[in-house]
Structures are given as C-alpha cells and as structure tokens.
Amino acid sequence: MNQRSVTGKVIIVTGAGQGLGEAIANTLGAAGAIVCACDIKEDHVKNVAHAIKDAGGAAYSYVLDVRSEDDVRQTVDNIMAEHGRIDVLINNAGTDVTLSIEDISVADWNRVLDVNLRGPFLLSKAVYPLLKHRGKGHIVNITSTAAKRVWTEATAYHASKWGLLGFSHALHAEGRRDNIKVTAVVVGGMRTPFIMERFPDTDPNVLQDPKNVAETVHFVLTQPDETVIPEVMVLPMRETSWP
C-alpha cells in the first residue's frame, strides 16, 4: 500500500498541553511533522513543544482558547504567517462536567458545548478554505465512545460528542468534493488526566495508553491519497463503556 508520510506537514493539534493531545503531538513530531501545538494552558503547551524540539522534532506552541472566534482566527493567521501553509487540523481539545440535569448550570452546559463542539466548528471553518485552496488536506476530530453509548451525569458531554460525530460525517461529505479528508476518531477510556484526575478510583487496567490512540491518528494521516477513513474506533480491551 502506498502510504503517505507526515514528514514536513504542518499539523495543528488542539488541547496539546497534556493527555491525548500531548501524545498526538509527540507521536507526529517524532514522525517528522511540523507540530503547531495549541492549548489554553500556556506553560503546558510550551513544555510539550520544548520536549518535541529536544527530541529532534519541529514544534511551535500557541496559546488558544478554542471557544473564541477571534482567538481561532488570530492563531490560524499566525500559523499561516510563520509556516506558509496548514496541512492537517486535529480537533482534540475537550472538557466535561459530571453533574445531573438538575445540577448542571447553563454556564457549565455552554462551556462543554463551546469547547467540544463550537471549537471544532470554528477551527474547521477557519482552516477549510486554506485546505481547499491547496487542493488537499485533512481534518481529524477526536470524539468518544460518549458518541455511541450513554451514562448518567453526562448530558452535556454526550450532546457535544454525538454532535461532533455528526459534524465530522457531514464535513466528510462536503470535504470529498474539495479533496479534503475528514476523520472522526472515536476514543475509549485512556490513562490521562481527563479521567484519572477526576475519577482517581478508576482502575487504570481498564484504560488504554493515549500513545496507542496517537498511533491510530498517525495511521489515519498516512493513508494513500485515494483513501479516507471517515470513522475509526480505538478501545481498551476492557472498555467499560462498550459492553
């Protein structure tokens, strides 16, 4: 199979300051990509970029609040000015709140939907015409088993991830007309701060290493030009949310 390489490709990774985003940034950096690591936490994302550089890769850090249209536009403009192009966008930034429908506030609901769904929309809308102008590109949206199954105290998270999966497939249908690939990566539980800091009693043995998911993202990006993977699911062998 004539697989492609990510070497030299300018790749935006949101939520790159820790967890899966950090693993994706490290994996793609090691594979030769020019990683544009974005996160709302400046210290975290700077450390990730420095680590990639120290390992011999190319990485740049950007402070980005994916909820902000102005922030998104400015960051994309900065990346274009500094690197001349964008090849791949990976919408990974995410958040959650564990509250019942009675207890969740409107502000919490808005925050989860803004980060998990509005953010990917804003970034995709900003990057899409740049990819279209180049005649190719790839957008990867990191969604969750929360887009396939449901559990309690997670209405906002489920709404955002089901929405992101639908957005991904709709964008895939549009993108094919312009030679732009779109992939939804449906991710099961991982040993990341997203779970371990909020649910410290979770058995780590039922979770997967985020590096495994990052390798799947790399695989998706290296498919031949004539092939696209619209959706792929990556689960730990003992995934509790996928019986």
Topology:
Layout: E1 10-14, H1 19-30, E2 34-39, H2 42-54, E3 58-63, H3 69-83, E4 88-91, H4 106-134, E5 137-144, H5 155-175, E6 180-187, H6 193-196, H7 210-221, E7 231-234
Parallel strand pairs: 1-2, 1-4, 2-3, 4-5, 5-6, 6-7
Helix pairs in contact: 1-2, 1-7, 3-4, 4-5
Describe the structure.
- This protein has 243 residues and is an alpha/beta fold.
- It contains seven helices and seven strands.
- It has helices spanning 19-30, 42-54, 69-83, 106-134, 155-175, 193-196, 210-221, and strands at 10-14, 34-39, 58-63, 88-91, 137-144, 180-187, 231-234.
- A seven-stranded parallel sheet has the order 3-2-1-4-5-6-7, sandwiched between helices.
- It is globular and about 50 Å long.
- The relative contact order is 0.15.
- The mean pLDDT is 93.
In quaternary terms, these chains amount to: single chain
Give me the Rg, rounded: 17 Å
Give the number of DSSP strands: 7
The helicity comes to 40-55%
- H/I helix tally: 7
Task: Give the overall shape, derived from the CA principal axes.
Answer: globular
The largest pleated sheet is described as: 7 strands, parallel
**H/E element string?**
EHEHEHEHEHEHHE
Low-confidence runs: none
Give the strand line-up of the largest sheet: 3-2-1-4-5-6-7
Strand content: 15-25%
Label the structural class: alpha/beta
> How far apart, in Å, are the first and last alpha carbons?
33 Å
Mean of residue pLDDT values: 93
